[in-house]
């Protein structure tokens, strides 16, 4: 799974892995020109390296690799797409838009670009525009990972305060990919918020089976267990918090005393 960064500000919508696509390849137009073919291979290699550095949070090097890829082959859509993602993380929004726009001008129906650009503009507050791009990505029958678009749309709708619609999108995501962590966590949180505690328990349990939970996930799990009066589950989650996050704000919220050094 690609490492994807989709942490939202202002509302706790965490663990959103799966939002964006960092593919370094695309369908090629056959060419008999060995020079062009070699340029494309170099561009693919640089874009692949950019994706690896992006995954590790080394954005300066990732950006340099995208520039090398574009220098080798300015028509390589995946390189512009990757550059948009890197610039988004660097908060170079004007240049990020230019990179995504360039990618879409070359391939207007590229679902990976639509998904990533849609997520970018949603995070920057342009919910309607972002959701339209995400709708187009998710509706593409040739898009190999439509669950990413559904997850992105669900998180975008949460940001816009459209919780019921967000849940619909997130359920669509897990129907395609049952182990999609970001969707499972957010479904647990949405279910808890609307008082559907059995649904919340189901989603957080599914999440816990396949993830190493962070403090936010354990906090939510404790709240759900308490709402369901499940003392055994509650104590299990509390023990994990005491062991792994004894001094966190989340532990303090559930009544765990800070550790003494």
CATH-defined fold name of the largest domain: Serine Threonine Protein Phosphatase 5, Tetratricopeptide repeat
Query: Uncertain runs with pLDDT below 50, 5 residues or more?
Result: 1-17
What string gives the helices and strands in order? HHHHHHHHHHHHH
Strand proportion, as a percent range, falls in under 5%
Classified by CATH, the class of the largest domain is Mainly Alpha
> CATH homologous superfamily of the largest domain, by name?
Tetratricopeptide repeat domain
Distance between the termini: 38 Å
Largest sheet descriptor: none
* Count of beta strands: 0
InterPro entries: Pilus_4_PilW, SRFR1-like, TPR-like_helical_dom_sf, TPR_2, TPR_rpt
TPR repeats: 77-110
Keywords: Repeat, TPR repeat
Describe it.
The chain is mainly α and 261 residues long. The chain folds into 3 domains: 36-108, Serine Threonine Protein Phosphatase 5, Tetratricopeptide repeat, CATH 1.25.40.10; 109-177, Serine Threonine Protein Phosphatase 5, Tetratricopeptide repeat (Alpha Horseshoe), CATH 1.25.40; 181-246. Helix content is 67%, strand content 0%. Helix 3 (77-89) packs parallel to helix 5 and helix 4 packs antiparallel against helix 5. The chain starts with 33 loop residues before the first helix and ends in an 8-residue tail after the last helix.
